[in-house]
Amino acid sequence: MDENQRSSRPASSQCHSPPASPWRNMVEYFKKLIKNSISQKVGEWVKDYCKRNGLLTLSVLAVISGCVVGFTLRSLDLSTQAKIYFSFPGELLMRMLKMLILPLITSSLMSGLSAMDTKASGRLGLLTITYYLWTTFVAVIVGIVLVLIIHPGTGTEKEGHKAAGGPVMTSADALLDLIRNMIPSNLIEATFQQYKTELVPNFKNSAKSSQANFVYIMPDHDNPKMGHPVFLELTPPPEIHYKIVPGKSNGMNVLGIVIFSATMGLLLGRMGSRGLPLVNVCLCVNECVMKIINAAMWYFPFGIVFLVAGKILDMHDPAVLAEKLGMYFITVLAGLFVHGVILLPMFFFLITRKNPFSYIRGLLQALVIALATSSSSATLPITMKCLLENCHVDRKIARFVLPVGATINMDGTALYEAVAAIFIAQVNEYELDFGQLVTIR
């Protein structure tokens, strides 16, 4: 009995552990509390991040994925038809964005300017045009300075830079076309076509008759000592005169639509209560367009993948392009970096005394779409949404400034065209003096 009791005591003592101390229970309680609070905070942070930056993150990943897919598929040597089929989702994205340009511009300008008085709208227009011209001027200066410092055309082969033949439109004709497009003759036609001057060749035969310019003796194979005189007549080439005729080019006449919509908006504001029905229609159209943009934005990451990949597939050999135009690319990219990352934020800080990069953070979605589409007009709906919702810009100002800016404010285009002109001169070893540089500017 004693032995059994002794043997059973250790067993019973092993089965029943001593009660936990209150300190241990408190530690376990705080561990669970901290774990639950951290997991809850992480979950809330992830949820809030996805809500605020989910589309931006997906768009950035879509651009990267499109680059990877595009360079991967280049090794397969796809046919032209296969490339068209592959790029179809990206084509739908571009068509979707371009579809919204016309209703967005007209409704934004007409509703925005109708709510402003004539003096305020005139002052806003003057400031807008002045700022756009100033930034374009600065962009050209940056491009000229960098191309003169880097000299991208020095040592570059001329074979890859042969100029295309044909007439070149004068600056006067280009300026007249710009003014003509500001006042379209047909408003319906302006939604899909622009006016463009065309130069048609007119051939005229020379008035001089052909003459025997050369006489030489052709040897006779049967009788080498004899020869046959041959008269060679050279006919002078016909004289080519280019005739200026009116023409059309495909593409929306955005400038003409902007001018018409702005004029209508100003007049609607002066009409008072009589113009309210049309103003309300414009407000409804604008709100509907913004709702369409909100719904369509979830398609953008998917379309961007195929849009970027399709553009990479359509590229010529990147190695050959980098070899011939590598320094030109570097010069243009350096100019865009200086202008977009240094100068424009500096102007923003000097004018507003606010942090420019927090403002740019709200526009990242529009910047990614612009990188993928390479179109200011196609990015206009997304830019409008980002300014109104993320940057909290006044609707009246955004509705006027953005359509005008998408039409006339082309800083990047002005920069790389200035670089291209001097680059071609450097390739052909042509020295430009100060007067010619001012002409380019």
Question: Could you name the key traits of this structure?
Answer:
single chain, 441 residues, mainly alpha, Proton glutamate symport protein, two-stranded antiparallel ribbon, 17 helices, 4 strands, extended, symport, Na:dicarbo_symporter_sf, glycoprotein, transmembrane helix
Q: What does this protein look like?
A:
The protein is mainly alpha-helical and 441 residues long. It has a domain at 44-163 and 254-440: Proton glutamate symport protein. Helix content is 68%, strand content 9%. The chain has helices at 2-15, 22-73, 80-86, 88-99, 101-114, 118-150, 171-182, 254-271, 276-296, 300-314, 318-352, 356-361, 364-373, 376-389, 395-408, 411-427, 434-440; strands at 193-204, 211-219, 227-234, 239-250. The strands form 2 sheets. Strands 1-4 form a two-stranded antiparallel ribbon. β2 and β3 form a beta hairpin. Residues 1-17 and 160-164 have low confidence and may be disordered. It is found in: Membrane. It comes from Triplophysa rosa. GO terms for molecular function: glutamate:sodium symporter activity; L-glutamate transmembrane transporter activity; neutral L-amino acid transmembrane transporter activity. Its main location: membrane.
